[in-house]
Design goal:
The complex is a heterodimer of chains A (401) and B (87). Chain A is built from 18 helices and 13 strands. Helices cover 37% and strands 15% of the residues of chain A. The C terminus of chain A is likely disordered. Chain B has a single domain, classed as Beta-grasp domain (Ubiquitin-like (UB roll)), CATH 3.10.20. Chain B has three helices and three strands; from the N terminus they run H-H-H-E-E-E. In chain B, strand 1 and strand 2 form a beta hairpin. The mean pLDDT of chain B is 88. The chains are: A alpha/beta (401), B alpha+beta (87). Chains A and B meet through strand 10, helix 15 and strand 13 of A and strand 1, strand 2 and strand 3 of B.
Chain lengths: 401, 87
Amino acid sequence: MKLVTSPRDHLAAVKAQIREASAAEVAEALESERAPLLIDVRERDEFEQGFIPGAVHVPRGLLESRIESVVTDRDRPLAIYCAGGSRSAYAARTLLELGYTDVVSMSGGFSGWKQNGRPWKVPQVLSSAQYERYSRHVLVPEVGERGQLKLLDSKVLLIGAGGLGSPAALYLAAAGVGTIGVIDADTVDVSNLQRQIVHTTDRVGMPKVDSAELTMRALNPDVTVVKYTERLTSENVLAVITGYDVIVDGTDNFPTRYLLNDASLVAGIPVVHGSIYQFEGSVTVYKPYEGPCYRCQYPEPPPPELAPSCAEGGVLGVLPGVVGTLQATEAIKLLLGIGAPLVGRQLRYDALEMEFVELKMHRDPKCPVCSKQPGEIEFIDYEQFCALPSRALQAPQEAIA
Amino acid sequence: MPPILRQAVGGAREVEASGSNVREVLDDLTGRFPSIRGHLLDDGGDLNRFVNIYVNNEDVRLGAGLDTPVAADSTVIVLPAMAGGAV
């Protein structure tokens, strides 16, 4: 093969086909109404040393395969930079060939930008071990490295380490949710193991929060587990839930459901609600003041004879697996701010019929709780509200699923 | 029918009932299965506050309530609050 042109001539020929802009021009454009999206096409190790705030990192080698998921509008203004202005020129020509219409290559690159004293910062990045562990997340455009970093920085509270809390704990830990709180006052019982897969046979008798921590930490050491070996009460609820981004509710009793609802409105934390009975389950998201709350949906709890627990009525072991996994899905979506969460919608699942039905729910403008501002909401006596004396006489009420 | 009331209607997951609105449908149903009336309606004949009725998957409580019209092929779902979790 005959060399028809030198690399230098080739670069010059490419630059003749594209538009270049100086660092000063790009900086000015960034302040304008039609601000370009900055795309950093350097290699990962270069990007990790520092980048221009707001830039999206798409290495030159992945440009063709990644760009469509990053920039869907081909007329969006784009400013491409590399270290010195050569690779960005090649990248700009590729983007023009792919149909992007408003592309400039920043001459002088990141080095020039820095030398001019313009702002840059060191990006928050996944460690190489994390990059490998979460690679299947990083590959999904809606999550990506940025989303994974967000998950690692997120806090989710699990109310209950039982049937629903088990799959939620496993998947949230696997997903790299950085802090997972677990509140449960119970110990592992052998009858739990038919469905509560976060626990194991050799941990019968161990506090559920300790068992859940062992499993989650074994699955993913990135996760910090915060344990609360207590029941949720009007006295401790705000101290427990404050600071969490999302709450996954897997309780089995009405007083805790109503207490959690009222407290989450005060604290402004979305609750991913799950409930199960025999072969049927239900999932919804109560997002404070955006959709209905639990009290809009059920202004009052049913009398005890109409609300048997799973201890009384039984449950197919795999049912909470499905429902708790749906809850974990909704929690991750809320943390990442992606997709359409189940706000104002209730998903019903019937395992026997293998049928999902979506029900629409409405916010009650006269709701005794969410029609009030957070500061006006007062906690009530939930045990009395739920009128459970008959059951309380029979056996101490188990607090958590 | 919710699992908790199925025994009272002969174990059926779905039952047919007639009426042009929710009230008439429930009257027809509770006429045939009197034991479930107290579960669905209070002494004044209003819908209990722990039960929701969905006509074609839409909650009727904050709409026309028991006066919500029901067409011949409508599906009416009865759903009391469920507590569980699984102890």
